[in-house]
Amino acid sequence: MKALAAFAVALLAAGPALAAGGPIDGAVQRQPVNVMAILMFLLFVAGTLGITYWASKRTRSASDFYTAGGGITGFQNGLAIAGDYMSAAAFLGVSGMVYAKGYDGMFYTMGWLVGWPIILFLIAERLRNLGKYTFADVASYRLAQTPIRTLAATGSLAVVCFYLIAQMVGAGKLIQLLFGLEYGYAVVLVGVLMILYVTFGGMLATTWVQIIKAVLLLGGCTILVVLAMAEFGFNPEVLMQKAVAAHASGVAILKPSAAITDPISAISLSLALMCGPAGLPHILMRFFTVPDAKEARKSVFYATGFIGYFFLLTVTIGFLAIVIVGTNPEYLDKAGKILGGGNMAAIHLSKAVGGDVFLGFISAVAFATILAVVSGLTLAGASAVSHDLYARVFARGRASEVQEIRVSRIATASLGVIAITLGLAFENQNIAFMVGLAFGLAASVNFPVLFLSIFWQGLTTRGALIGGFAGLISAVAFVVLGPTVWVSVFKYPTALFPYEHPALFSMSIAFFTTWLFSITDRSPRAEAEARAYRYQYIRSETGLGAAGAVSH
Amino acid sequence: MSEEMYDRVLANPKFAELTSSRNRFSWTLSIIVLLAYYAFVLTVAFKPELLQSPLAGGMTLSIGLAVGLVLTIFCFAMTGLYVRRANSRYDTLNRLLIEEAAQ
Fold this sequence. Notes:
The complex is a heterodimer of chains A (552) and B (103).
Chain A: H1 2-13, H2 35-58, H3 62-67, H4 74-85, H5 88-101, H6 104-130, H7 135-139, H8 145-179, H9 183-230, H10 236-246, H11 258-261, H12 263-275, H13 281-285, H14 293-324, H15 345-394, H16 401-425, H17 432-455, H18 461-481, H19 483-487, H20 503-519, H21 524-542
Helix pairs in contact in A: 1-5, 1-8, 1-17, 2-9, 2-15, 4-9, 4-14, 5-6, 5-14, 5-15, 6-12, 6-14, 6-21, 8-9, 8-15, 8-16, 8-17, 8-18, 9-14, 9-15, 9-16, 10-14, 12-17, 14-15, 15-16, 17-18, 17-20, 18-20
Chain B: H1 3-11, H2 13-46, H3 63-102
């Protein structure tokens, strides 16, 4: 049981991207009930439910529900994107990874960051100009609606489901650690709150929950770093000298470990870290909440700044914890391992430098972070069901807006119930691979289809469909046959596919098959699709005819 | 949006000017960022001990940590550079183009 719980913690350690070998030291123990943390969290819940009530009065049309009426400013959206991206996994996982292994944590943060400038230069404004509510709008712009929407919705739902299960199980474990609440209560609580936010408040409430959480998280981490750095006279050189002296690995914490220095692993991991975000449906959806391409660009600019700053803080927190937490017997067990598991480095640090009140605050922020991320995911999943599958595929565009909104609310509630059920079912399973799978799918299904539909005139429905499903199947197969499932879950001695991070291979398969089955497609439909690229190109470059903001 | 309007945009030399200049700019920036990032990834893969070496003699602060800080600032600066030019020069050109096509 303890070992399985530790695996769940490893999932959080893996960060939003991949289930890398995170710091899995020490099993999860339920902590004593933390009253201060619960009070602060209740305050957050009360505030966000108030916002949901306010947002529900303004959420009437489909555009309100999916994109907050397109009325979010670039700055607000930048904070919300950063909020979607800065999960509890990134906060606790990266600082925990630095605490355990040193420099490896920084390698992950660089990959997650560098995707953003690329998204800005190549994707953001074209996505805004072509799409309305979901990225499937863009992918199916000139291709056949039914198959491409089905593919995009399948890709989105697969990413959302795996990510959601991982977050739910992670939330249950984390809340057990932070608040001393039972696992089951925690999962149901997260599920119910997320259903309330999304069903009643739609994108407007989800965005504001995300913005508040981003401000709390950035503020909390800043205070944590300032309080802790004061003990080193704000001198990073002093900090690093003491960290090297305190850590069991000594000076090796300044060097990437063997886990990432294998060239194929490093390159494959870097690809997934970089391209994954450009295929995550809840992130892509954020670009439709701003009025135009100009605000879309600004949102990435702000988001990059916030995300970069946040990652610098989390890496610093890891090194600070090596000295302050790692040398204090109060936070270590008899074997010298950190109490509560590897993800607790930042949490213990907050207690060490700020006492119980600050510990409560940071714990509440971590919980709020999970809640905000699952809400964004659920909204993206519900949109794939109602806007893509229901309105475009089943009703063939003949569904009324009222019907579509009703379906989206039903889909939200259903996804919430599914997430709670699976969250409870997977309590004692090793689900560390699910985060990796979600990112692998995003990079190997959604990203190639989106990228090629924007940039390649020769893309045809047949190519996108075959390539997309080839990416889907290969990403799942490589993860199942790889070390994270074949060895860690099925307990076979050796993996059939040797690499933990398959993105290099599954992305290559997706791009190659899409290309091959597009250039060999000689159907009249393929010709019409190539001709239609001209108009798509004009719209993606200029925004002519793009869906504008709806005024309230 | 009528097809004639799209055809007028396509025929306008400003469209070619806008797209070729902006695309050259955005692809150049992408390649610069990718080169910087993959220089880092390949260092991790092939010469990890380089990242461990001190910034200056007698220091513990390493080149790797400085690279992380510099890459972060660099990414943010590059997005700023792109947004500044796109939101002023390119958007002005874009607006003119759409106004002319609407006539």
